[in-house]
Each structure stands twice: as C-alpha cells, then as structure tokens.
Records
---
Amino acid sequence: MLSVLTDNWDLFRDGFWLTIRLFLVSAVLSMVLGTVLGAFRVSPVPALRAVGTGYVNTFRNTPLTLVFAFLFFGAAKMDLALPSPYWTAVGALTIYTSAFVCEVVRSGINTISPGQSEAARAVGMTFFQVLTLIVLPQAFRAIVPPLSSVFIALLKNTTIAAGFSVVEAGSIPAAMSERSENQLLTLIWIAIGFLILIVPLMFLQRWAERRTAVA
Amino acid sequence: MSDSGTLTQTGLVALTGVNKHFGELHVLKDINLSIAKGEVVVVIGPSGSGKSTLCRAINRLETIDSGTIELDGQPLPSEGKSLATLRADVGMVFQSFNLFAHKTILQNVTLGPLKVRKMDAKQAEKRALELLERVGVASQASKYPAQLSGGQQQRVAIARALAMDPKVILFDEPTSALDPEMIQEVLEVMIDLAKQQMTMVVVTHEMGFARSAANRVVFMADGEIVEQADPESFFTNPTSRRAQDFLGKILKH
Ligand SMILES: Nc1ncnc2c1ncn2[C@@H]1O[C@H](COP(=O)(O)OP(=O)(O)OP(=O)(O)O)[C@@H](O)[C@H]1O
Ligand SMILES: [Mg+2]
C-alpha cells in the first residue's frame, strides 16, 4: 500500500502543495472580502446593505462548479484575458466562500447586544470604530466555530479546480490512472492527505476558542 | 422659574417642532424644549410616553421625522463623521449600563478619549483614574464590567460619559435596573454632578432626585410635553389632569 504513495511521491507532493496554496490564499482573501461584505450588511448606508444582501443571495445559492464555469468559460467567451488557471480558481473559490464568511460574520455581529454599539456611538465613535473596536472583537467568539466549518468546506472545495486544469490534489486520481496505479489505494491516500490538512485547522480553532473564552 | 425658552432664546439643547413616528405610532408630537447651560431637567411620565425616544433623539440614536434639534446653536448632522463629532459632546447613560464587556473598567473610560479625542495615553489614563475616583470605583479599575455590581457599573458608565468632557449628559432611567440598595449611590454621583453645573437631561421616576437636583420637571404623556414646572410646584401642585393621575399612581407606593 505504501508503495503507491512512495512510487508516485512527485504527484502527491505537487498536488497537495497546490491544494495548500489554493486553500491558504483563498481563505485569506475570503476572510477579507467576507468581513467587508459583513460590515456592508450592518452598515447604516442602505445602498451598501443592498450590495451585501445581493452578493450573499447570489453566490451562496450558486453551485460552486457554476462559479468556476462562469469564470473559466464565460470570461473566455467574452474575450476577457484571464490570469493563470490557478488565480482564476482562487477567484472562484474566494467569490463563493466570501458569501459564507459574510453570513458568519453578520450572525456573529447579531449576537452582540445593540446596547454595545449604541454606547460606542454615543461616545462619538465612527461606524468603522464601533465595528473594529467594540463589535467584532466581541463577535469573534461566536464567529470562530462556524468559520472553521466554512474553511473546512473551502479546503474540500479546492478539489473542484481539478476539473478546470488546475493540478491540485483532486487531479491526482486521473494522473494515477494514466500510470495504471490502484485507484482505490490512490483515493485512500488522498483522503488521508486531506485529513492531515484538516488537523491543523482544528487545532487553530481550539486555540482561537480558548483565546476568546477569557473576556 | 419661568416657562422658559420656547422661542425667546436658544438653549444649549433646543428642540423645535420635533415629530417622530414608529410606523403608525406618533411617539413625539411637536416637541418644543430648550435646555439652558447648567440646567438639570428631569423628564417624567407614564411608560410608552416617549421619554426614551426624546432622550435618544437628542444624540440622534433615533432619527426624527420633522423639526430641528440644535446643540449649542448647531443643528444635528445627519450622518457620518460630523455626527460622531457631535455625539462626542453629548454623554449618554443607559438604563442597562452598556459598558464595553470586553474592556476593563479603566479601558471603558479611556477608550473614548483615546480613539475619539485622540488624547495621549498617559493623560487619558490619569484623567480616567481621577474620574473613577470621583465616582468611587477606582479600586475596580482593572476588573471587567461583569465582575462589578450594577451600581458600580452605572457609576463607571457615568465616568465614561464624563471622560469626554460633554456639554450635556443624557440619562435614560439610570437607576431603574438597579437593586434598591444601589440606587442611592448612583443618585449621589448625579446630584454631585448637578451641583457642579453639569447640564443634564434625566429620565427618572426618582422624586427625591428631582426635588434635590432638578431645576425643571418636564411631564410627558402620549408623546407630548403636557406640563413643565419647577419640581416643588410640579409635585405639590400639578396643573394638568394627566399629571395629577400619574403622580397619584406613583405616590401611592
Ligand atoms: N424601535 C421601536 N420601534 C417601534 N416602536 C417603538 C420603538 N421604540 C419605542 N417604541 C414605541 O414608542 C413608544 C415610546 O417609547 P419610549 O421608549 O420612548 O417610551 P418611554 O416613555 O421611554 O417608556 P418607558 O417608561 O417604558 O421606558 C412606545 O409605545 C414604544 O412601544
Ligand atoms: Mg424608556
């Protein structure tokens, strides 16, 4: 069983390395975009709220494969020059995942009593200060657990990129069948690979939960 | 005491023809109210009469439908940075304290001066400790709000408001969430403020406070200012029927 892995180590190594890069870059970008959208959804400006709501309703309800397809084929149809498949995949994953991050952030914000932001506004803080100094730090505790689920989903979702000529871990089975390797063992090794990637995420969640439990 | 201020002079806080609806409900009906610098105005009235809404309208935590509200001759800005700047000058003390739960007592008091007034950290801390001393909770400075009693939390909330050097402080039923034995310690701090000429708008049913500290009592019912007078005349000799009924009810217990 081990030889399946060791004989094809180059495939597994390169595939998972690309998966990790897809995941980390998309996670950071989705976190940023999702938080901004979440702020839009609670902002006092109706137009921003509408943008936030429209975004979430659109991308949370579109299958991820379709988002990929739109970016890869739709853009090509419109003669738009696309960046590399890797960055196009990062774009698709980020667009999709941000909608979920936005909802997690928004519902986290809703767990904080309105009295907290009223008191902050009464002191003279701007909307941005109220959000970053008072509301988000307190909402963080409620945000961590559902956010980890969103990121674990993102990690698994990276395998969709294989269908769009990105050679991440999801593309290993096809390459392995070209080398006439055992398909079942290949899949088992890929599953183990993903489990190994999820472990640090779980530790990160534990750590963040413990850090926010104090206050 | 005069029937002060409808049109003659503009006070520090001046409301003119203010109306406010919540959907169908007309909660503020053509309110005219002028509050002079150094004046202490107690707002009293039955539940749902619009006292909190009036208070919150003064620093625009509630928007109004028509009329004007002026602070120090300036109309309230509608949004954004200039509104925040104005709010910095209007202190607010809430019924439920609303101390920042993730900040220490000291940080609760320094946060506004640091982030809004851009005061230097040392100076903000020094001033905060003085204020905490003044309201009698300096020894709790490094604790978190949840570790304090309600009376202590409310005194911290007053210190937090004072730290901004506000022109006026709004109190919305500052003692009604407190256990009876803690009411007095908060009222004493407020009476002390009144003595030092702080301009205050206080929604409260504490008649002892009104009698000892207020210059004027404003009685509201159904969104209207029905009657206003100095505390002595108001409590001993209310002129309107509704004020008489209301005082009859609250004086019984
Ligand atoms: N956000 C809101 N949306 C809808 N109606 C509201 C809102 N806030 C207050 N009201 C209604 O407006 C009326 C006035 O409310 P307000 O809180 O100003 O009264 P109050 O005099 O402070 O009463 P209380 O003594 O109970 O605090 C009430 O009928 C209340 O139900
Ligand atoms: Mg009220």
---
Amino acid sequence: MAKLALQSVTKSFGDNIVCRGIDLSVDEGEMVCLIGASGSGKSTLLRCINLLEPIDDGRILLDGVDISEPGLDPQPIRARIGIVFQSFNLFPHMTAAENVMLAPRRVLGKSRETLEAPVKALFDRFDLGQRMQHYPDQLSGGQQQRVAIIRALAMQPEIMLFDEITSALDPELVGEVLDVLRQLRTEGMTMILATHEMAFARELADKVCFLDASRILEEGPPETLFSNPREDRTRAFLKRVL
Amino acid sequence: MTDQTSVPRGSAPGLTRRQAYEQRLRRRSNTLAAGSTLAVVLAVVVLVPLAPGWDAVKRSFFNGQVFAKTFPGLLDAFLMNVAIFLWCAPIIAILGLVIALFRDVRSPALYPLRLFGAIYTDVFRGLPVILVIYLIGFGVPGLGLPRPWNSPYVWGSLALILVYAAYVAEVIRSGIDSIHHSQRAAAASLGLSDGETMRYVVLPQAIRNVAPANMNLFIALQKDVALLSFIGPVEVFRQAGVYKSLLANFTPYVGAAVIFLALTIPATRYADYLMNKQRRRQS
Amino acid sequence: MSLRLRKSRAGLSLTHGFVQMLCWSLDKFPPPSNLWTTQQGRTIRQMKTVITSACLLAATSSVALAAGHGSCADGLTLEENVLTIATGNPAYYPWVLNDAPESGEGYEAAVAYAIAEELGFEADAVKWVRTSFDEAIQPGAKDFDFNMQQYSITPEREQMVDFSLPYYTSAMAVLTTKGVVDAGATATLDSLKGLVWGADANTTALPMLTEIVAPEKDPLLYGDNTDVTAAMQANQIDAALFDLPTALYLSAVVVEGGVLLGQFPAERSENPDQFGLLFEEGNPLRDCVNTAITALTESGKLAEIEATWLQEATGVPVIE
Ligand SMILES: Nc1ncnc2c1ncn2[C@@H]1O[C@H](COP(=O)(O)OP(=O)(O)O)[C@@H](O)[C@H]1O
Ligand SMILES: [Mg+2]
C-alpha cells in the first residue's frame, strides 16, 4: 500500500481551478519531484496534502486512511506531515532552538529538558550546533532554511514536503540545503519536492511529475521524463529550463 | 605619492578623507543650527515682552509668587493622576487585547464575539472621552448602587478604560494584521492550533510591532486622566482650577502643564525612539 | 412702537459714532501742513471748516445726550451711553429668573438695573453679555463694564481683579438629600464632619467648607452647580455647601428629594461670603458704581430688592 495516495484531487480558488483531478501515489521511502512552470499548482498541491488548504473534491489517503474527509480535525494530521516553505517562515522572535522546540513542546507536550538532547543532536547533524541560540535575522538564508528543515523534522514526521526550498537562496547557498535533502534521502525519509533544481531531481528522484495547467501531464522515472518525454509540452518546458 | 598617511589640513589625524569631509560638514551644520535657534529664541524673548498686554499676561499666567505658592499642592494632586493611571493602564492593556482577539475569531459559533468587538471599538472610538466619563461616571451610579460601588473613581476609571481599550484593541488588531499569513501557515503546518498559533507566534510579534503606537496611547491616557476631574476627583487639573478660582490667576494651570510635560516629553521621546528603531529594523 | 423708537435711536447713535470717529482721526492725524498752502489746499481747507463745524455739532449733541444722566459714568463705559453687564451662562435662579437678565427679574438682575438707574442709564441702555468665570479673570480687554455672578470678594482675588462694594452678604447653607437625613445626618457640626462633601470648584465654598466644617474625607469638586447636583443625585456625595439662596433653589427645584439642612449665618463668620461686582483691574468705573451701591444701600433699595427676590432665605434653621 502506498504511504500517500491522491485520488482525483480537485481544488479551485474561486473561478481559478488549480488542481484538476490529480492522481498521485508515493511509496514509503520514496522521493517524488514535482516540476512545472510557475503557477502550475505545485505549491497548492503540497499545501493541500498538508491540509493547509481544504480540497474541493477527491481524496487524500495517508496509510490508506482518508485525511481529507471534511470536518476532520487537521491538527494531528499536520503534525505527521512536515512542510518546508520557499521563504523559510521561521518565527523571527524566537531563537533557532526555540523555533525547533515550539511544536514538540506545545503539540506533543514534551518538556524543554527532554527535548534538549535530541534537538542538539539534530542541529549537530546538520552542522548548525553553533547557531542554536541565534535569531533568524542573525543567520544566512541557507542556515535559516536548514533550521526550518530541522524544525519540521523535530516533529518526527512520516512524510516531508518541500516547496521550492532553494528558490530564495543565493546560488552559493543552494548546495548546503540540497546536501540536507541528500542526507534525508539516504535515511529513507518519504519526500515530495516541488523544485526547479532539475539536475538534483534527475540525480535523486524516484519519480518526477510534470504539472501543467493544473494537472499532472506526465510522470515517470527521471531518466525517461528528462531524456525522453512523451508530451510536447513537457519537452517545451524542459527545453526552457535546462 | 611619497607620504601615504598624510592628512588634509584642518582634520584630525587618522581620519579617512571622507570622514574628514563629513566632520567638516557636521561642524558647519551644527553652527548653523545653533545660530538660527539662538536667533529665534532671542526674537521670542525680546519681542513677546514688547507686546502691550505682556505685563498683564505675565501677571496672570507666569506669576512667580503664585507658582511658588501652588506648585507643591499641584504636585500632591498629581499623585492622584498617577494612581488613576496606574490602575487603569494594566486593565486597558488586558481588555484591549481581549477585544482585539474577539475581532480575530474565525469560528462561526463565536461570531457574536466578533460582532461585539467590532461594535465596541466603533462605539467607544466614536465618542468623546469626556462624554463617556459623564455618562458612565454620573449615569451608572445614578441607578442606585450603594457605596463604595458608586464611587466616581470606579466609574470614571471604567470610562477611561472602556475608551482606551477600544483604541488599544485597534492598535493590537492592526499589529495582528501586520503579521504575514505565512507565519500562521508555518505554525499550523507544525500542528499548532489556532489558539496556540496566536499565543506563541502571532501575538508576540504583533505586540512588539505596535509597542510604540501603544505607548503613545498610554501617554494620551496620562493626559486624559485629568478629565476625571469633571465628575469629582481632585487631581492636578482640578486642583489648579481651584487655585485659579481662589487667586483669580491662571499660573496654577501653567504649573500643572509643567508637571504634565515633565512626564510626557521624556515618554514621547522614548516612544519616538522605539518607533524609529522599529522602522530601521523593518527596512 | 417701542421697537421703532429703539431702532431709530440705534441709527442715531451709529451716525453719531461715525462723526466722532472722523473728528477724532482729524485730531490725531492732521493733514500735512504744506498741503494747506497749495492751490488744492483751499478746497481741503473749506472741507476742514465743514468737518470742524460738524464735529462741534456732534460734540454738543453728545453733551445734550449725556445731560440725560449727567453721571460719573460718562465716558467710562465700554460703549458710549451703554452699560454692558456680564452674567453667567446660564444665569441661575434666584439670581436671575429664567436665565433672562433683561427682564430685571431675580436678585442680581434687579440690582443691576437699580445700579444702572443710579448711574443714569435707562433700562434699554443696559446690555447683557455672558461670560464664564475664566473669561472674567483672563488678562486682556474685557467685553463688559462689570461682571455679576455671585463673585465672592476675597483679598487674593483682589490682587488680580477689582471688586465693587458688596451688594449681598450671604449665609452659607448645607444642601443634602432626604436619604442622607434619613440615614441620620443632623444639623450639627459633628454630624456634618462625617459626610462626604462636594462643592463647586470655582467658588469660595471650598475654603469655607474647610474652615467651617473641616470634613474628615477630602471633598469632591465639580465644574458647576449642575455637576454637583448630579453627583448628589448619584449618591456620590452626601452634602454640598452653597450660598443660601442658591442652596434654597437647588433643594426646592433641582435635587430630587433635596433638603436644606441648615445655614451658617453670615454674622457668625469672620470673613463672610460677600458678593461684589467684578471689574477689570483699574477700571475707573468702579468708584462710580461704588457710589451707586452705597446710595442703594442707604436708601434701603437694596434691602427692598432682597425682600422681593430672596425672601425665602429667612427662616432656615441655623447650624450650631
Ligand atoms: N491563496 C490563494 N488564493 C487564490 N489563488 C491562489 C492562492 N494560492 C495560489 N493561488 C493561485 O493558484 C495558482 C497556482 O499557484 P501555485 O500553487 O502557487 O503554483 P506554483 O507553486 O506551481 O507556482 C496560481 O494561479 C495562483 O495565483
Ligand atoms: Mg510555488
């Protein structure tokens, strides 16, 4: 059974249909990349999976359970799905460590003491041990984005969603963030990425989906999709970005 | 090319060329500012006393004898202002926050709160403070409350609290609105409830953002405490009025003004300093 | 008929004023003398003769008008031949009835017209304006000849403004409510000390209160009578000190369940509450008005007015 399955997911903002019956399945430990032009609906799709946006129709199954059921309390489900945003969205009034500890303390009810060791370990793992007591505005973009990833990981999510997390970074900082994703990949984290890093997707993705005009126009293993796309529009898109 | 460290004439050694230039510029503008200020002050000091009514005005408003005689009494009465301010301010802060939160509730079941918050702020921001003080200060006790529950201190303070809480609520609400929705999304994505998001993520930032604006409100409150005198309490403004009436002289009002300014000018400067600091941080 | 008369009189005084202005300016700023020697000078000289004779005429006519009263107030009033008197806004019973001083009804209104008559002003030469206490004492030109609204004469005030001789000496009286009396308040000093007091902050009632009663709790103060009675109605104060006539009126008409507990007679006080007309400091009209007040006192006219308008003030129990 797929870890996460989307069945005919439909979403619109007013007259603007952003998802037109999306089907997608992600297996445990798999890494799926969403590519597509700006405005094709990648962010919205990720936000729907994480229940930040309610969907209009269709179903989202997590471990076979429908989490998109209207009226369901979204909080415990969101706690199981981590998301990292393009613009970091760290809480500016808290230190890096406080950013990371907030949700485990308030949602999982853990104490500061019990969290100290594992959080320190997380920061060390991503090379940020020296930056725990810094405020976001004292950190570089790359460091901030890594703290945001640590913040999501601290909830021990079952799936991680990444929404163009390197797009807002200076080029020389992109590498350190992608390294984190590589590391997570080797650890077997289930991940969905919206990304413009085609080389990265080609290198690491199990599956690449090309979103066009609010639907998944074409999907497949990276070698096939990148070297031998079936659809003209896919080919045109790749030509533009590669 | 021979001496790399030679400095231009007239500037301190060890300064870069630019620093030396800026120093000269600064000195010149300081001289100019001092000169023009002096000229204006001189003009006021020399010209005003030439006005035909100056002697009469001086005797009625700047009467040293009357000032010396009444100032201690005014200071004493000002303690009343301070006391009223001190018990009103925390309640205003709390009520203002509560009303601001009412206006942010999203759940339809709590819509009445939202409506109440909106009506509340509209009404109390729309009324002159003095009117509210009269209506509540005389009106509510007139319903027949026993002492001490009909005290003008209680109801006058309540009037101030109601009005100022409305302003504080609006300021806090604007602070809440100023927090980008991506902050809420980030908190929600971590599994925080709406309440927790507000409490730990939105409010701390919002309140910090509007601290200078709120500070200005509390400076205004300090001044408006004087309005309570209309319903009985003898604070500095009323005390000055009593002296004025007994001595047929306005100098006690100048004394009261001096006391207010001694408090509000530093506070206003500080609020401005905070405001500037904030602006620099945001840009 | 009387309206037309007044109108025509106003017209007369207007032209009169204009001519006077002309004469005055001719006096102050004579045309340069070399003008008189030129050709054109002749016409101007002729003009001057005409104007001068007009001025002479105007002067005679003004003498003729003034002869009507032949008074010490001549030339001392704000407006020629008009006595401008200020009162409060509003003016309270029983000092002025119905807030209409022009009617001459009420003690102060009646006294005002009596003084005007003494000074030689006819009733319709009296003009009323309204001021607050503060306007009365502020520095600068005043828009009244004298101000009459129960101003108590005190030495401190006399340093800033001038008062006439007193036109009324008032007892002070305690206004309270039936509820307070039912709760045990009596007309004794001991009982009064324990009450919560209020007073009008603009009057001398406050020092009187401290001097006579010395209440245990600090009194609450208000901006005018209306607010004092509102506080009493709201049961925020038990009692208030007023001059006797005011207290009588408030207890009878304004305060629901109002009671006049008693009075402190003026004779018993070291410095009793005496009302005087307020003048801008140094106003020479004061001497003239003082003469009038003395005359009114001596002739018994003042007592007669008091008997007419303040007769209820007798027979109020005295506080021991
Ligand atoms: N909150 C929203 N309200 C209205 N329209 C939105 C909202 N979020 C996204 N959209 C619209 O949905 C479409 C898809 O946007 P998005 O998911 O951000 O695309 P992508 O991430 O692929 O660039 C766009 O047309 C965008 O304008
Ligand atoms: Mg996007």
---
Amino acid sequence: MRATAMRSVEDEPGQEDMALWRQAREGDPEAFGELVRRHQRRVWMICRQYVGPDEADAAAQDTFLKAWSRLESFDGRAKFGTWLTRIAINTCLDRIRRRKRRGTVAEEGAGEDGPGLLERMPDERVDPERWAMQRQAVERLGACEERLSARQREVFRLRFYAEMDLEEIARSLGIHVGTVKTQLHRAVHRLRRELGDVR
Amino acid sequence: MNRHLSDDEIAAAVAAEKLAPERARHLEDCVPCRREVDGLLELIAERRRALEAEGPDFEKQRQQILEGLAHPAAPVVALHRRHIWRPILAAAAALVAVVGIWLQMTRHRPAAVLRPLPVEQILSDVDATLADRSVPGFESLDSMIPAPDEMASMIDDTKTAS
Ligand SMILES: [Zn+2]
C-alpha cells in the first residue's frame, strides 16, 4: 500500500513530462521550454562529465535542439528524462569524436575540472581552515576519479553528480543494471581506498 | 554481530546497495561505521555542489534554446549550407557540359574537328558527389539514430521495468 503510494508520487514528474511532451510535439514551444527548465541542470551536468566545463553549455543546448527536432521519435516507453539523457550522451560522444578527428582532444582531460571549479568563496560562517581541508579533499576526489576505469567513472558520475538512478543509467548506457551496480560498487570501493584518510 | 563493516560493506552502503539485515542494523547503531559512510557521501555531495557552481546561467541557457527553436540548429545548418554547394556545382557543371555538346552539334562543324567531351565521366562524377555520404554535418544526425541492438535493449529494459 505504502509502496504503491510512493510510486505514484514518484511517477508524477514523469506524467507531467508526458503531458508537456504531447503539447511540445504539437509544436508548442512554451511546453518545450518547461521541459527544458525541468531537465536542463541535469543535462548540463551529464554534458559536463563527458565534454568538460568549456563545452558543456553548448552540448546541453545542442541536446535540447536535437530533442525538439526529434520529439516524434520519443515513444513514451522510457522516461522522457532517460530519452533526453541518451541524446545528451550521444551529442557529447559526437563532439568528442569530432574533436578527435580534428586532433584537438586532450584524451582524458575533457572531463577534468576547470580552473574555476573550486574557487567558490566560503560562506562567512564557515571555518576557513575546515573549508581549505574540504576543498583539498574534493580536489583529491576529482583526481581519484580520473584513475577509475572509463566505465566506472561514467557510472559513478552519472549516479552521484547527475543523480540518476541505477535503472536509468542502465537504460541510458544500454547496459544491464547488474553491470551498473558492479561498476558503481567497484568505483566507490576504489575511491575510498585511494582517498585514504582525507575524510 | 558487533564486527564493524568491511570495506566492501562500506562501499555497498555508499552505493546504496542493500545490506544484510543485521549488517544494516549494525550500521544504524555504530557511530564509526556511520561516520565512514556519511563522510564519503558528504565528500561526494560537496564535489557535486562544486561542479554545480560551475553551471551556466540556466535561465539564459533556456532562452537561448528557445531562440534556437525558431532558428534551428545553426551549426549543423551552417555545415549543410557550406557543403550543399558541392552537389549544386556538380549539377551545374553537368548542365554546362550538356549545353556545350548541344551547341557543338547544332553548329554542324565537321566531326573530325570536334574534341569529344568526357560526358560519361562528368555524369559519373556528379553521381559520386550526390552519393557522397561523408558530407560533414550528416554524421552527427546519423549517429542520433540508435543502433537496432541498442534500441532493442531499451525496449527490453522498459519491458522488464514495467
Ligand atoms: Zn561499526
């Protein structure tokens, strides 16, 4: 009973997406604008993981323009967000391929942190020493992520930074959910070991 | 029972995997184990916040996307525009060749003076240009179409989830 109630609450955003998608498919840009508003942070975060901070905004915009031109092809069997995630990932992989063709790719560098990442000023109430330590720990986590396998890193970042659930990651990447679980477990295990005593 | 969580169990807890009931109970009651799990989760959350802080002005981004709907896919269109001239130029060259042949024939010059134009070759060049699928700008659209096996797995996953 409780599970049913919880599921229906969870399903609400999906239902709203579907209603907006139907309106957008009829050519209503305002409905599409609302879909953008609902998903743009996550799409940006996904793009951020693949193409890096400099290109993430352009890749995210590209994603939505492609989605708009392909609204007809969404059949509603997956969540709208999952469908959008696939477009975002494909868009990013395209950009990486094009970069490689032009010979301007910095290998793994694409996903690395930009210079401004950790330059946020701390809240005045935060102890500066504690803030500096935390900042160091966050930097170290980023560095450790770079040493994960590509798949582990991808799954870890989609799970924790794009805040996708395991099923959604599996569908978006076209892999089995068991594989997602395994890769995530290994990623966390390895990060924890490499981070050592920074926590 | 009172044994602390192993590294594997801590990783499992961080990854939100289901622990055996007695291990889950231990985690609930044990401050050092909870600190391990919560510490790593908090660090990850802090990094997510730092990444989010890099984000663009999302309202501005939304407006740019909506403007883009009215003027669709500028970069892709630009590529198409640049390369759309290739088939047009090839077709124009073929037309010039055909008109040239016709003019030569209507002037009734002696056949021996005529240098035969490589009409077959020109037409096959035109065909090749028109059939060229490597025109930049198409590949990004082609790759948007999921491969049949990918599509099948999406459908399968949807079925098992429902
Ligand atoms: Zn313990």
---
Amino acid sequence: MAVLIPLVHALVAIGGAVISVFASIGRLVRFAATALVRLATPPWYPARILEQMLVIGWFSLPVVGLTAIFTGSALAQQIFIGGSRFNAASTVPAVTVIGVVRELGPVLGGLMVAGRVASAMAAELGTMRVTEQIDALATLRTDPFRWLVAPRLVAAVLTLPFLVLVSNALGVMGGWLLATFRLGFNSAAYLATTARYLHVDDVVSSLVKAAVFGFIIALMGCYHGYHSSGGAAGVGRATTNAVVSAFILILLANLVITVIVFAS
Amino acid sequence: MTPKLRLSGVAKSFGAKPVLRDVSFDVAAGESLVIIGGSGTGKSVTLKCILGLLRPDAGRIEVDGADVTALRGAALARHLARFGMLFQGGALFDSLPVWANVAFAVPGSARSRRAAALETLARVGLGSEVADLRPAELSGGMQKRVALARAIAVAPEILFFDEPTTGLDPIMADVINSLIRKLVTEQAITAVTITHDMASARKIADRVAMLYDGAIIWHGPREAIDRSGNPFVEQFVAGRAEGPITMAVRRG
Ligand SMILES: Nc1ncnc2c1ncn2[C@@H]1O[C@H](COP(=O)(O)OP(=O)(O)OP(=O)(O)O)[C@@H](O)[C@H]1O
Ligand SMILES: [Mg+2]
C-alpha cells in the first residue's frame, strides 16, 4: 500500500494540472465568444477601430518592413549557397518568393507584431484593470468588451493582412536586392521568375494566415490584460504571458493552416 | 414603501478569507446613507457587490424591490446605468483629457459634451484650465474631484461615493460635502457614501451604518451617532485607540 501513496500524489498533481489547463482554455474560449457575440450588435465605436488600426498597422510598418528585408536577403543568400552544391543556384528567385510569401512573411510579420502589440495591449488593459478603470467603464454605460476588446480584435484582423502584404513585398525585394547586387543575377530575369512562381493561392493563404494571427495577437493581449490582477507585478506577468502565448499560438496556427492548405 | 436599495445577508469571501459575513441594510429613496468602519472591513467590497462588479457568495441585493444579485449581460448593463460611482482610487481614464473623462457617459455632440463637462467641473471647484490636462497632470485631490464630477455628470438615480473627501483640504472637503448633500436634498438622488471622516459623515448623512467584522453592527439616524450606546461606534466616532476594536498592531 505504502508504495502507492507517491503514485496517488503524482496522479493528483497531474490531474490538477490537466484540469487547470482545460479551465484556462474554457475561460479563453468564453472570452473570445463574448467579444464576438458583442460584435454582432451595436454600438461599434468605429473611431476606436480606426485608432487601433493606426496603432497596430502604421506604427508596426518599420519593424515589419526591416524584418522582411533582412530575412528575404538572408534567405536568398542561403538558397544560393545551398543551391550551388546541386548546380541549382538559379532557383533563388523561385524558392525565395515561395518561402517568403508562404511562410516567412506572415510568420515573422505576425511574431514581430505580436511582440509589439500584444504586449502593449496587455499592459494597457492590465493597468486599466488594476486601477479599476475597467470597472469604471461599466458604471459609465460602456461595455468594456465593446469599448476595449472588440475594436482591438477587429483592427488587428483587418490590419495584419495589410502588414503581411507589405512584409511579403519587402521580403521578395530583399532577396532581389541581394541577388542582383551581390550574387550577380540579372534584375529583369530575377523579377520575371519571381512573377512566374508567385501564385494567387499562396498570396491568399498568406493573407488568411495574417488575419488569423491578427486575431490571436489581439485576443492574447486583451485576454491577459483584462484578467490581470495584483498591481504592477501582475501587469508585468500579464504582458509576458500575452507575448509568449501569442508566439506559441501563432506558430501552432501556422502549422495547422500550412498542413490544411498545402497538404491537400 | 419599498426601499430603493436593500441588502439582506450579503456574504463575500476572497479565497479562504471572509470579508463580508452578513451585511443587511436598507436605503430609502432620496436618502443619504453613510457607511463608516475600519480600514479593510469591506466597505468598498459592499459597494462593488451592489453594482454587480463583484458577485456575492450569499444573500440578496434588491433595487426598487427587484432582485439584482445575479444579473449578467444586458440586464447588468441596464442595472449599472442607474448608478454613478466615485471609486476610492478615482479610476480616471488616463488616456483621455479631463473633460473627456467627465463627459464620458454624456451623450451628444463633442461641443455640448465639453460644455457639460466644464459645468460639472465648476460644481466641484475646478476651472476650465484643467479641462485639457491629462489626469496624471493633476494633484491627488484634483483627481478625486474630477472623478466625482464624472460620477455626477449624468445625474444617475443612485450615487455611490467611496471616500469622497480623503486627500482634500478641510475647506474643499466641506465644499464637496455640501455638494453631495445638495444632490440628495435638491435632486432627490439616493446616495451611499463611505467615509472615515466624521465631520463629513455628520454633514452628508441622513442615516449612518457601521460595518465591523463583516456585518452592520449598528445603524441609526445621524443625530444618534453620539449616543449610540454601542461601544464599537463610540470608539470609532471618538477615534480612540482604546476600546473593543483592537488594531492588529504591536504595542510598543
Ligand atoms: N479583488 C480582491 N481580491 C482579494 N481580496 C480583496 C479584493 N478586494 C478586496 N479584498 C479584500 O477585502 C477586504 C476589504 O476590502 P475593502 O476594499 O472593501 O476595504 P475597505 O473597507 O474599503 O477599506 P478602506 O477603508 O481601507 O478602503 C480587504 O481585506 C481586502 O484585502
Ligand atoms: Mg475602501
């Protein structure tokens, strides 16, 4: 009998952890559902949506653009080095455009925006929570979900595809710059090959990924901020959790979408 | 007559820590109740339970005879729209200028909302020069008054003031006390005020209730607080360290 006791303790601990994981998933799903249901009816606060689109979209452009240029160039360089071993260095434009549009543009763009925006949302809503500003909203005839959460979700879902479009274009441009100025490719031929391998399907899947990532970013930022507690340290924890969970969910969603879209 | 507000047997714990055990009181329409009680006894928690911002574990809360204890969604929003609340910490929106804070729930065009905000700010002794400042640029007492202005700007049926005069100088405190008294007397608003300041309690209250150890241990009309016959109330009103209420501090 005595040997069973540690086993029971272990099972209880595992069970407790599993239950708390499911409980958090449940809370998150309910949070998202509440926001979406409220979105179905007015008021919508369009000015708040525009304001958030500016914050998310416009101010993320430099970060997303630089990331795309650097990564697109590095990708072209690596394909060139790798391709040279099989006499396939000429695949640089084709592989670069596919790699950028299908994967790197949306994923890196999403991650950079997550780092910038999910953290800012969590910090802002978290501070509003611990200073009772969210409670105050409710006493001022304003639904915190409609005023704070819904505009951020809508803005992120609308803005991320635009950012990813920019990210894709600059990523391809980074590859082209490096290929023509350093690797000796003919500029016009490079661009022609790029255009031939750029498929509408890839662009569409890229934009779908972007919209999903936008939803994840705003949801994680709002959820962790909205539920933060315990003063400045609690807001700090909420911010970290928002970024980490947004990163993981973006990568997971990317995998799922990639498998669904490209394996079928 | 049905009271405007009725609490019966309200209890609330946080984790294993009980804060309210059995809170019961009535507030009649157009009456001003002042709740007194030591720090950390659950006065703010009581107001948040009535508003529905916190959910009581047991008991019943009624507004105009209707049970509001378990409201959610749209019903909760309609319930909340009847109240104005001055939060203890102000809870001003730090991303908005002062005037937009005050006019937050005021409908209408930007111009008319701003005018309404300036008018309400004047009632709490603040001039138009603060209207475009951010809350963080104001002193603590000014923030408190802006928060007060925000709570009264839409003339709600029921007003809650959580320590309206802490951090104010005695003269400004008296201005605020008179304002609250005037709202109750002239506009027949029902008010519940939390305060530690006995001068303020005497000025604002029609009735006074004392919260101690998770329950209302005494309540009565304002005139009765000096002859309550309750040793807890007597100690609190006189502000004595000696008495039945013992503070958890080490005696040197
Ligand atoms: N959200 C919360 N989570 C956990 N405990 C809480 C929470 N809010 C209040 N409490 C606890 O409830 C008790 C009562 O808090 P409350 O703010 O109502 O006190 P109070 O009577 O208003 O005191 P004060 O006069 O100092 O403002 C405190 O001990 C506090 O620690
Ligand atoms: Mg309090």
